[in-house]
Amino acid sequence: MATSSIRFFNFAAPSRFYALAGWLTPWLWAIAVLLAGAGLYIGFFVAPTDATQGDAYRIIFIHVPAAWMSMVLYLVMAGWAAVGWAFNARLASMVARALAPTGAMFTFIALWTGAFWGKPTWGAWWVWDARLTSELILLFLYLGYMALVNAIDDTRRADQAGALVAVVGAVNVPIIYFSVKWWNTLHQGASISMNAAPKMASTMLTAMLLMTLAFWAYAFAVVFTRTRAIVLERERDAAWVAELTRPVARVPA
């Protein structure tokens, strides 16, 4: 157990993480494409038409996983930012920065697809519903974090300021999740719960879970790629980066 823990923490070094992420990324892209293809096929061609919403409900196979990812990635971002702040862990702060654009993208997709779902269901593209409003605030938190860390030239101070914003903003995530229980909202409750049977057909559930896994694989692939770029930028003076970027000498003919 101790040996495996030591090996795991070895990847906290930017150079080792860079190599590991480079090896994992192509596999993650392949998994994301395969799972997304299967999920979209089942969701749009195999799953039955909903009795009340018709085919308009099929947007949930993108909307719901994106909404889940928007919340989970924010908590992951805040967690890594807090670790970087508390322990001065360089790689943790880099991962936090890499997570923010992907989390913001999923939040935008959740809001955008929610508007397309809301129009035929509620008769309006947007309502100031508790869940929609708190999800919009989540997007602003992502954008605010990215704007702040990029506005401060000193990297360490930028990471600390961004961590403070991320940690404080994490209180919005449980508000999003429990908003349908705490307030009388138009947004429907959860169709999947840990302590109750799913409120949907098995093919619908399969499609949604496949899309969720596809989004996870995509998020890992993109975040690993972005983190590798940040590592190269911050560690450009390190010997291992100089060795990595050294041009290969050509053998004369």
Quick summary:
75% of the residues lie in helices and 0% in strands. It is globular. It is built from nine helices and no strands.
Question: What does this protein look like?
Answer:
The chain is an all-alpha fold. The chain has one domain. Helix content is 75%, strand content 0%. It is built from nine helices and no strands. The longest helix has 33 residues, at 14-46. The chain is globular, with a radius of gyration of 21 Å.
User: Count of DSSP helices?
Assistant: 9
What is the helix fraction of residues, given as a range? Answer: over 70%
Number of domains: 1
CA radius of gyration: 21 Å
Q: Please state roughly what percent of the residues sit in beta strands, choosing from under 5%, 5-15%, 15-25%, 25-35%, 35-45% or over 45%.
A: under 5%
Unreliably modeled segments:
1-6
The assigned structural class equals: mainly alpha
The termini sit apart by 53 Å
User: How many strands, which pairing sense, and closed or not: the largest β-sheet?
Assistant: none
Principal-axes shape call:
globular
What is the averaged pLDDT score?
A: 86
Helix-strand topology string: HHHHHHHHH
Q: Report the count of strand segments.
A: 0
